[in-house]
Amino acid sequence: RQLFVGDQVLRVAVETEEQLRLLASLEEDEILQLDFWLHPVSSDLPVDIRVPFASLQTVKVFLESNDIPYTVMIKDVQDLLDEEEAEMEADSV
Amino acid sequence: RERGSKSFNFAAYHTLETIYQWMDSLVADHPSLVTKLQIGSSYENRPMYVLKFSTGGDNRPAIWIDAGIHAREWVSQATGVWTANKIATDYGRDTSLTSLLNKMDVFLMIVTNPDGYVFTHTSNRMWRKTRSRLPGTTCRGVDPNRNWDAGFGGPGASRNPCSDSYHGPSPHSEVEVDNVVNFVQSHGNFKSFISIHAYSQLLMYPYGYSCNDVPDAPELDSVGRSAVKALSTLFGTSYKVGSICKIIYQASGGSIDWSYNLGIKYSFAFELRDTGRYGFLLPANQIVPTASETWLALKNIMEYVRDHPY
């Protein structure tokens, strides 16, 4: 089973076209293995990205160094998965 | 205990096997209304079932509803289960639904991507795509909502087989998509095509592959706004309405663009209740509230379709 320990979901508040372009370039970087839940297309919409633990530092540094505001929407994806699994087990009991 | 449709726990997420068993019990409990049709098999050879709600007649005008084309959006499949039960149990009690089913058939596909759904239960909870293999890459699966023959391969879909929005090698390359396409085309009398997804609370109409307005955009917008108004009466949940391209992002190869271009005017896609705070892990205690509010919107659209034949 694939684990998501330490993976976070970041909500990025894009403010300019230039920031959109920068985020789009992140999307194309296959090494980071980012999972875009909402893609960077408009400055009216947030961008949600699941960032694997191994890429977190790179992505956060990238956002901060480009003055792109973000918040951590999900602190640890695996914690949520574990909670959900426990809930499912309780339901099945 | 959950094999009986009356004792099923709708406030929990279930495996494919349990959902398929429950479908049999629903059919057994409502034999004069519900039938289960197999429209084909998935890439890994799992059956693909559609529930047909019909009071008779021959090839009546019909409404298509599918859920779970993106495997990880679990509240979509769970809403499909709840909705199937709601249609079966409200027929004969709810005057409006009864009049609808006396005129039209409803086809509901609860798990449109069964391989992906099983994979989310067994290996990777965040899986979205199909599980097909392609020569030349170790990455598996195609985004089945980028694989339809509607602006295929255009903006908003990836050429990279490792991407979660990979469009696939050709239109309808995914057997799951092809099965639905063949079924809808051979039926030939669908008047509405509704696809249920789950993330960020939207009700969308075509196009996704183009940002140009479809000819019916004003009417679809008005129907959509009326539907989300009905939806919000239950818990105040707020939805955005608009074309895919204008309210979320340009995305080519989507199912409702295909259905609209086929001539099915009332084509819509839902993104159900999910603020993102839980990602695709909407707590199970929100399944029934989500399904209940969605039903109000679905019913609103279906009533409009019934009352506006074309």
Topology:
The complex is a heterodimer of chains A (93) and B (310).
Chain A: E1 8-12, H1 17-28, E2 35-38, E3 47-51, H2 53-65, E4 70-74, H3 77-92
Antiparallel strand pairs in A: 1-3, 1-4, 2-3
Chain B: H1 16-29, E1 34-41, E2 47-53, E3 62-67, H2 74-90, H3 95-103, E4 105-109, H4 114-122, H5 175-187, E5 190-197, E6 202-205, H6 217-235, E7 240-243, H7 244-247, H8 255-261, E8 266-271, H9 287-307
Parallel strand pairs in B: 3-4, 3-5, 5-8, 6-7
Antiparallel strand pairs in B: 1-2, 2-4, 6-8
Helix pairs in contact in B: 2-9, 3-9, 6-9
Please summarize what this structure is.
The complex is a heterodimer of chains A (93) and B (310). Chain A has 93 residues and is α+β, with helices and mostly antiparallel strands.
Provide the descriptors you would attach to this structure in a database record.
heterodimer; A: 93 residues; alpha+beta; four-stranded antiparallel sheet; 3 helices; B: 310 residues; alpha/beta; eight-stranded mixed sheet; 9 helices; 8 strands
Distance between the termini of chain A: 22 Å
Q: Would you identify the regions of chain A where 5 or more consecutive residues have pLDDT less than 50?
A: none
Largest interface: A-B, 28 and 27 residues
Largest sheet of chain B: 8 strands, mixed
**Rg over C-alpha atoms of chain A, rounded to the nearest angstrom:** 15 Å
- Which geometry of chain A do the CA atoms define? elongated
Order of helices and strands of chain A: EHEEHEH
Secondary-structure-derived class of chain B: alpha/beta
**Distance, first to last CA of chain B:** 45 Å
Q: What structural class do you assign from the helix and strand content of chain A?
A: alpha+beta
Question: What integer is the average pLDDT of chain A?
Answer: 91
